Amino acid sequence: MGKIISKKYLYISIIIFILCPFTLFNNYYLDNNNPNISIRINALADSAPNEDWDDLPDIPYDNLNERWYNPKIEMLIITNNSQDFIDAVTPLMDWKNQKGVKTIILTKNPGDGPEEIRNMIKYYYETEDIKWVLLAGDAESGLIPIREVLNDDVGFWGESEKVGDPEYKPTDYYYADLTGTWDSNGNGVYGESAFKTGGQDEIDWIPEVYVGRLPAGNAIELGEMINKTLKYETEPFIGEWMENMLLAGGISDLPGEEGDPDGEDEARLTSFIWQHYTQYEMNFTHLCNFNTGYYTPPGTYSSLTQINFNNSFTSGYSTIIFAGHGNFDSYVDKNPLGGFRTIFTSDDAGNSNNFDMPSLIYADACSTSTFDQNDNNIGEILIK
């Protein structure tokens, strides 16, 4: 036993003997060959902050727990005060809450006008954390009224849209911009520009919330729109169509019209979009008409006809941009031979079979979504 212990001490002594010279050598080298290192090390040690942890702020666990377990409202669904409308939008509310977007349903009382609805939105914006507002009801039947604002284009340009009042235009932006009253001079005319007020625009062009509308005239239509939305969000048809964009530019003016010697070719706009944006992000199809001899689009394109537009529409595009003329029931463009050419109609929209591939559609054309005037407008039919 004594020999074993002696051997252990021997081994330990050898290890210490081996390690110590290197340690002593390193200290000697640092002190004698590079004394600044030791000085800097000591200086760092002396300058280390002496923190008093008692000065650190307390973590507001109660507030964090409250926000986690009882989050503020982020979305409002405003609909008609009837049980069938409430039942129609409830599945959408449930889905939004399931996704983590706290959503509630508010109902419009009989007799409530745009101001009462806007004040309701303002209250929840100021007391909660709402970012989105969905108006679930038509404006034409007065279910969810729309605000008419002064936009007297006819006074400046001598022309106006063919649908509705020539000087007063409908807008849901009234529910998105929650600044002021939109009638700062109190004359009962909403949305006047600085030219009329002699001061500032009555509209603030920075919105507080995002506003959308499902223009349903009854609970059955509303249910169809809700189901279409839920289908896209919960069971989307995944495919290449999600990376496709359709650009369609027509002729707005012929050469010499509106004082424009070379006319107005909307293909200039759609070409600009694909040249500067789309070609780097998405696959695209370009359909266009243009004033021959005055403009020729770059790249590959096909003629913008009703057949070509419908075939493309049905094949599936995540985004569609049309630029030309419009009516409540059609997209059209100018025909060099006279009159207008039909590109897309309400019947085409109703007969389209792109239910699994719904598109985000932007129509740079007049009167194509006049849901406050016509139930059979293209915009409303496409949402159904």
Report on the architecture of this protein:
With 384 residues, this protein is of the alpha/beta class. The protein is built from twelve helices and 16 strands. The strands form five sheets. Strands 11-10-7-12-16 form a five-stranded parallel β-sheet, with helices on both faces. A four-stranded parallel β-sheet has the order 2-1-3-6. α1 crosses α2 and α4 runs parallel beside α8.
Order of strands side by side in the largest beta sheet? 11-10-7-12-16
For the termini, the CA-CA separation is 95 Å
Strand content: 15-25%
How many structural domains does the protein architecture include?
Answer: 2
CATH class of the largest domain: Alpha Beta
For the residues shown, what is the average pLDDT?
86
- Count of alpha and pi helical runs: 12
Structural class by sheet pairing and helices? alpha/beta
Silhouette: globular
Architecture of the largest domain in CATH?
3-Layer(aba) Sandwich
User: Could you say what the CATH topology of the largest domain is called?
Assistant: Rossmann fold
Largest sheet: 5 strands, parallel
Percentage of helical residues? 25-40%
* Residue runs with pLDDT of under 50 for 5 or more positions: 1-30
Radius of gyration, in angstroms, nearest whole number: 34 Å
Order of helices and strands: HHHEHEHEEHEHEHEEEHEEHEEEEHEH
Within CATH, the superfamily of the largest domain carries the name Gingipain r, domain 1
